[in-house]
Amino acid sequence: MTLEWMAWTMPTAIFFITIGALLVSMTIWQVKAPSVERKGFLPIATTPGDRLFIGLLGSAYIHLAWIGLTMLNLWIAFVIALIWMIVLMRWG
Fold first, then answer.
1. Is residue 48 part of a domain?
2. Domain span holding position 76
3. 52 contacts 89 by C-beta, under 8 angstroms
4. Would you say 50 and 39 are in contact if contact means Cβ atoms under 8 Å apart?
């Protein structure tokens, strides 16, 4: 079975490596210093892992909406998604 039909480029590899590193880092952080749920601007109490998951989903939706609704450069969506993740992790 070949995977030639898939677009495994350097940006794709960097993306998946970054997501994996985030998940491993969050796991190590929670094992070393377990956190308690807290209530931010989200309507539910969340842990940092919950906020990371919600942030990754939100970032995916930001990118999909950007691709579907605009013809602008995708790096703009990346910056918006990065700001979303920072705000969510800090105050979410």
1. no
2. 60-92
3. yes
4. no
CA distance 52 to 48: 6
Q: How far apart are the first and last CA of the chain?
A: 43
Helices assigned H by DSSP within 4-73: 10-32, 48-69
**pTM for the predicted model, two decimal places:** 0.78
- The domain total for the chain is 1
Q: Please check whether residue 77 is in contact with residue 62, taking contact to mean a CB–CB distance below 8 angstroms.
A: yes
Position of tokens 């929670």?
A: 30
Q: Are 26 and 52 in contact (CB under 8 A)?
A: yes
Is 2 a member of any domain? no
> Tell me: the pLDDT tens digits for 17-63?
989 998 899 999 989 988 888 999 999 999 888 899 999 999 999 99
Q: For residue 81, is it within any domain?
A: yes
Spatial CB neighbours of 29, under 8 Å, sequence gap ≥ 6: 48
H or E stretch covering 87 = helix 74-91
